[in-house]
Amino acid sequence: MSLHLLQKIAGHAASRTTERYLHPDQREVTGVSDKQSNQLRSRSGPALRVVGE
User: Fold this and answer.
1) Is residue 53 in a domain?
2) What domain range includes position 15?
């Protein structure tokens, strides 16, 4: 979920306020990084698409 969507849901005026409450764990960071790396290495080249739904 994007930071901006979380910010809107929480009713925060500034994204910095929302960021204080976000604490991604290392597995989540690694998983997103791996998905992005695989996408960029695809035969058809980089493409924009929703990942992880």
Assistant:
1) no
2) 3-40
Does 48 reside within a domain? no
Position 50 in a domain: no
* 31 located within any domain: yes
Give the CA distances from residue 30 to residues 2, 6, 15, 24, 52, in Å, rounded to whole numbers and listed in that order. Answer: 17, 21, 23, 10, 13
- Across all residues in the chain, what is the average pLDDT? 79
Interval 8-27: pLDDT, tens: 999 999 999 998 888 777 78
Q: What is the pTM of this model?
A: 0.44
Contacts of 19 (CB under 8 A, 6+ apart): 3
